[in-house]
């Protein structure tokens, strides 16, 4: 039967009230996050990425481009644009030396791996935003944020940080006190992954056991709570009262979702893709100058020894300096083949969990560092970066040692 407008309105009001209820709001939030995982982590990072990476790029575009470039020029230009195809997309266990072609790596990562993940996340985010659920999520999480000296309004830049930490850092202006703005900026830079990074993380999580998911989530959450508690005690100032306008729950409009998603994808293509190209070009220059091998060797004691990761992970962390989601995409390229095997070993699962925790807590991208400098000052941006970098590797090293002690 068709519901009347009055009954639909009553149902919407009932759901809106339940979404903010101290008891019922938590399972609703958990259900929303689980649906987000299914859409982004399973469909976006699984089905969509596999099709774009293997069928479109590795199966069609890269071979065609390689054949065309070789027919016209070859040599230097071919290596610069495509890289050695035999070491390219879909052929190796990770980021291989000499595989830094602008098309085979930069565009393949940006368009084939990250774009499907970003697009599906933006769709889910737009639905939550247009339905009026996001402010209710802030109300539900108000008590949690109170534990670290903030209030529920802080969840708005935090959730926005799941789209882009740079934009989220700018929106900390909505918080009432300097202390709150500084704390949220720190937590955004430390442990809130942007959409591209989160999507890649969800893609890897989809391939490991449930214990690994909970270890990753508990470690990142615990670190965020610990840092928040310490910051609340050490930083001067007081938290403001929680005052937030909550709109009525409504059915999301397809037109609004499409417009918001398209606008955010346009932002990604304009802002993120050029950084992928620049990062690949820098890696190509370092490789051509034989400097990349030296950097990898310098990172080896940390990446292989402290974190227990494959040598190729050093590449992912190196490019993570330029862009955190690019580093996450590198980890995806390294571990995806092993996670697709019929049986995933404990060693692989430990490596994936350690890598995910470390890259989640890794230094923010260059754009976010610049935004922190603009909003909070150059000294604050430098201090946060100097703290986050060794802290992330220390947490990853302790987690690696603990998991191996317990599981192996």
Secondary-structure blueprint:
Elements: H1 5-20, H2 25-72, H3 75-81, H4 102-131, H5 133-140, H6 142-146, H7 155-161, H8 165-171, H9 178-191, H10 195-205, H11 210-234, H12 254-288, H13 291-306, H14 313-320, H15 324-339, H16 346-360, H17 366-376, H18 378-407
Q: What kind of oligomer do you see?
A: single chain
* CA radius of gyration: 22 Å
Instruction: Please describe the biggest sheet, giving its number of strands, its sense, and whether it closes into a barrel.
Output: none
Helix and strand string, N-terminal first?
HHHHHHHHHHHHHHHHHH
Average predicted confidence as pLDDT = 78
Termini separation comes to: 58 Å
Shape: globular
Strand content: under 5%
Task: Name the poorly predicted regions.
Answer: 85-98
Q: Portion of residues in helices?
A: over 70%
**Helices and strands: which structural class?**
mainly alpha
Count of alpha/pi helices: 18
Number of strands: 0
